[in-house]
Each structure stands twice: as structure tokens, then as C-alpha cells.
From TrEMBL:
<dbReference type="GO" id="GO:0020037">
    <property type="term" value="F:heme binding"/>
</dbReference>
<dbReference type="InterPro" id="IPR017972">
    <property type="entry name" value="Cyt_P450_CS"/>
</dbReference>
<keyword id="KW-0479">Metal-binding</keyword>
<dbReference type="GO" id="GO:0004497">
    <property type="term" value="F:monooxygenase activity"/>
</dbReference>
<dbReference type="GO" id="GO:0016705">
    <property type="term" value="F:oxidoreductase activity, acting on paired donors, with incorporation or reduction of molecular oxygen"/>
</dbReference>
<keyword id="KW-0503">Monooxygenase</keyword>
<comment type="similarity">
    <text>Belongs to the cytochrome P450 family.</text>
</comment>
<dbReference type="InterPro" id="IPR002397">
    <property type="entry name" value="Cyt_P450_B"/>
</dbReference>
<keyword id="KW-0408">Iron</keyword>
<dbReference type="InterPro" id="IPR036396">
    <property type="entry name" value="Cyt_P450_sf"/>
</dbReference>
<dbReference type="InterPro" id="IPR001128">
    <property type="entry name" value="Cyt_P450"/>
</dbReference>
<dbReference type="GO" id="GO:0005506">
    <property type="term" value="F:iron ion binding"/>
</dbReference>
<keyword id="KW-0560">Oxidoreductase</keyword>
<keyword id="KW-0349">Heme</keyword>
<protein>
    <submittedName>
        <fullName>Cytochrome P450 107B1</fullName>
        <ecNumber>1.14.-.-</ecNumber>
    </submittedName>
</protein>
<dbReference type="Pfam" id="PF00067">
    <property type="entry name" value="p450"/>
</dbReference>
Length: 416
């Protein structure tokens, strides 16, 4: 990481500009920029985006406070113009979910989702995830380099969520096909028609899937989700559709990229990899440290100031967008000593990182994500103890960073 080199001579203006424009250098490695911002302007106004003032928070204490601040909201209906600026004609039914809701609606949706998503449902997925991980690794060639993102990290999480939602067989293939159209087209201006077609297909399919679940109840996750009530009220069909959608969307790329980041950072820190190989009891804390060191969610999802809010000495005016740099906060030396050092034996503050967010929107799928990471890393360490990076010398920089706004991760991970 070029942290030290880039920091020499990097000024505040340059850091703000890089963050506003999301320059290639910033996207490649935002840590030096976050360092300057944390030190000099932990709550900074960026040049307006989509015509709306945007404030970026990079220091742990302020980030932590903002994530739980009820004066900073998320409801898309409060800022519907921004919603259209961001997502164009995307299907609102899908996005009308708990990630973009405030109390009391969020409380209700979250309560039902949490009641349905029991530890048993997560535990029951273990054998399936283990089988899936091993099947995918069986297919990896051992005599030539393989792109671990494509072969392993990409397919596994989305299949796990399909399993959780009872989407199986041919239907799963169809859902994955349309879902991949959405992930490819969501941030592309040229693919709006594809996006609309795919989102409508998924909405109709989920509606039918819910109808079938109601007609044939079992004890699976979706049945419990359909039947659970909060203050006498169950979820409506539209709410169920958007809940399925958010689980698929929020649980897919995040986990894919986190698997990639974790493997990459272990392979580039051989002493840490060796320590983990020699003592597997370190696995749970290694997973937390890898989430802190390079979490796959770079900035939290959009929030708005519902009123003027003072944070870290800066007044964020009502209506402004608030962006919280989770990866910046996770490298704050005031919170985590020697933050740029990956140290899987760090026990202290293990679960205080913001890799899964904090407050009312704390990641609903964190227990499942932790299980997936544990199974994936264990399978790789067991089966390929001699795995190394297979770096193409010429374009080492290019494959490192995928073009994913708000995420941090690898597009490719060639290993041998
Ligand atoms: C929320 C990270 C895996 C479902 C979040 C948030 C973060 C996050 C940072 C909060 C966003 C914000 O406050 O703006 C991650 C990471 C994962 C992961 C790093 C993998 C390593 C999953 C999985 C699922 C999931 C596997 C589902 C099966 C959700 C949902 C929310 C959420 C539903 C919204 C919760 C709410 O708004 O109340 N996640 N996530 N996530 N995550 Fe995850």
C-alpha cells in the first residue's frame, strides 16, 4: 500500500477533491486521503453531488455517532428526487425496503426480519455452504492460475442467499441470470432498459414465490418471514418482495468482495497467514480484523440530515447527504492503535469495527456473513495451504480495484 508515499505532500484540498470526484487514485487506495481528512477535516463538505450538499465523515468517533443519530435519516420518500437522480427508473417496489426506511417503518420491518432470521436458520445453512464451497473448489484447476473471484467468491454468496430464500433448481438459474443483469446495469446509464426489464421480472417472480410459500408453508425462513407479525401486522406482499430483494442485494456483493479482500490480505501478509494456519482458533478474530483492515463496504449507504446537525464541530444543514466512510473510520488511530497494520492476534476491540455498520441499520446478515467467511477461509487453508498470488506483473494495479461505487474490493484475484 502506498500510504506513506502518497501522504507526503498530500494536502487537504487535494484529498477533498479526490473524494468528491472519486479519482482513480482514490478508488485504488482511499486510505491516504482518509488519513488527511481524519486529521484535518473529519466532517467535510464535498462539492455538491446530484445538486445536493454532501458531507463526508471519516473519523471513528463521529462516524459511530452519526450511524446511530436519529436526526440523520434514510427514508427514500423524504428525498425522492435524490432517489430518482440515483436510480433513475429503477423499480421502486424493490428499493422500498428497510435499508431505506426510518422509524417507525424501519422498526417494524427490522423486527419482523430479525425474528424470522433466527440463529437456527443461519446454523442450518452450514452444511449447504460447506458443500457449495467444496464443490466450487473441486472445479478449480491446480496446475494453472485461477481467478478466485470468478470461480469462488462470486458464485458462493448469492447461491447461499437463494438457499435461505428457498429459491432452488431451474428457478435459481433464472433468478441468478436476471439478478446479474441488475448488478451489471444498476450504475450504467446505457443499460436502463435492461435494468427495468430485469427488476420487473424479479419483482413478478418474488411475488409468485411468496404466493407459493403462503400456499405451502414449512418451517423455512421465508415461511417464518411471511407469517411473523409486529403489533398484529404481517408484511404486505410488496414489503415481502422488497425484503427478499434487499437480502439478495445486500448479502451478495458485500460477501463476495469480503471473501476476496480477506484472501488477498492474508496472501500479502504471509506471517499472518502462517499464524492462522498454525492456530485455527484465531479464525473468528482474524475475520473481524480482516473486516476492519479492508471491509468491503467503503461508505455507508445514503443518509440525509433531517434537521441541522452538528457533528465534530461542523453543522450539517437539513437536507444534506451524509456519507460515512466506514473504511476510513476503521483505520482511525485514535480507536485502533497502528491501524495500518493487519494483526489477526488483536483481541481488543475486535467487534467494534464498523465493517458491518452500527446502530439501527447494523448489518442484518452479519452472523451469516461471518459463517460464510469462516467456511470459505477454512476450506481454502485446508485444501490449498500453498496457495500464492499469481500476479500478472504488467497490470498489477488494474485488477486490484473493481469499479464498484461505495464498495471496496477486487475485480479479479488470480491465485495459483
Ligand atoms: C446492512 C455490511 C453481508 C443483509 C449492512 C450495512 C453494512 C453491511 C455496512 C449497513 C449499511 C448502512 O448503515 O448504510 C455487510 C458486509 C457483509 C454483509 C461487509 C459481508 C461480509 C450481508 C448478508 C446479508 C446482509 C450476507 C443477508 C443475508 C443486510 C441487510 C442490511 C445490511 C438486510 C440492512 C439492515 C437495515 O437497514 O436495518 N450490511 N453486509 N448483509 N446488510 Fe449486510
Amino acid at each position: 500500500e502506498p500510504t506513506a508515499a502518497v501522504n507526503d505532500g498530500l494536502g487537504l484540498d487535494e484529498a477533498v477533491k479526490a473524494a468528491t470526484l472519486s479519482t482513480p487514485e482514490y478508488r485504488q487506495c482511499p486510505h491516504p486521503y482518509y488519513k488527511v481528512l481524519r486529521e484535518q477535516a473529519p466532517v467535510v463538505r464535498l462539492t455538491p453531488r446530484h445538486g445536493v450538499d454532501t458531507y463526508l465523515i471519516t473519523r471513528y468517533e463521529e462516524a459511530h455517532a452519526a450511524l446511530a443519530d436519529p436526526r440523520i435519516g434514510k427514508d427514500m420518500h423524504e428525498g425522492i428526487d435524490l432517489y430518482h437522480a440515483l436510480f433513475g427508473d429503477a423499480c421502486e417496489t424493490l428499493d422500498d425496503n428497510l435499508l431505506f426506511a426510518d422509524p417507525p417503518r424501519h422498526t417494524r420491518l427490522r423486527h419482523i426480519a430479525k425474528t424470522a432470521f433466527t440463529p437456527r436458520h443461519v446454523k442450518d445453512l452450514r452444511p449447504h455452504i460447506e458443500e457449495l464451497a467444496n464443490e466450487l473448489l473441486d472445479r478449480c484447476p491446480t496446475d494453472e492460475p485461477v481467478d478466485l473471484m470468478k470461480a469462488f467468491a462470486l458464485p458462493l454468496p448469492v447461491m447461499v442467499i437463494c438457499e435461505l430464500l428457498g429459491i432452488v433448481g431451474v428457478e435459481r438459474t433464472e433468478v441468478l441470470k436476471w439478478f446479474s443483469v441488475v448488478t451489471r446495469s444498476r450504475f450504467s446509464k446505457d443499460m436502463k432498459d435492461d435494468l427495468v426489464e430485469a427488476e420487473h421480472w424479479l419483482r413478478d417472480y418474488f411475488t409468485e414465490h411468496i404466493r407459493c410459500t403462503r400456499a405451502n408453508p414449512t418451517d423455512d425462513f421465508l415461511t417464518v418471514l411471511v407469517q411473523t407479525r409486529h403489533e398484529e401486522e404481517a408484511l404486505t406482499d410488496d414489503e415481502l418482495v422488497s425484503m427478499i430483494w434487499v437480502l439478495l442485494f445486500a448479502g451478495h456483493k458485500t460477501t463476495t468482495l469480503q471473501i476476496g479482500n480477506s484472501v488477498f490480505n492474508l496472501l500479502t501478509h504471509p506471517e499472518q497467514l502462517r499464524a492462522l494456519q498454525e492456530d485455527r482458533e484465531l479464525m473468528p478474530q482474524a475475520i473481524e480484523e480482516l473486516l476492519r483492515y479492508e471491509g468491503s463496504v467503503e461508505t455507508s449507504t445514503f443518509r440525509y440530515a433531517l434537521e441541522d446537525v452538528e457533528i465534530g464541530g461542523t453543522v450539517i444543514p437539513q437536507g444534506a447527504i451524509v456519507q460515512i466512510a466506514l473504511t476510513g473510520a476503521n483505520r482511525d488511530p485514535e480507536k485502533f492503535p497502528a491501524p495500518d497494520t493487519l494483526d489477526i492476534t488483536r483481541e481488543h476491540l475486535q467487534r467494534e469495527h464498523l465493517g458491518f455498520g452500527f446502530g439501527p441499520h447494523f448489518c442484518l446478515g452479519a452472523p451469516l456473513a461471518r459463517l460464510e467467511l469462516e467456511i470459505c477461509l477454512t476450506a481454502l487453508l485446508d485444501r490449498f495451504p500453498d496457495m500464492v498470488l499469481a500476479l500478472p506483473d504488467s497490470d498489477a494495479g488494474d485488477w486490484l480495484k473493481g469499479p464498484f461505487p461505495a464498495f471496496r474490493g477486487l475485480e479479479k484475484l488470480p491465485v495459483a
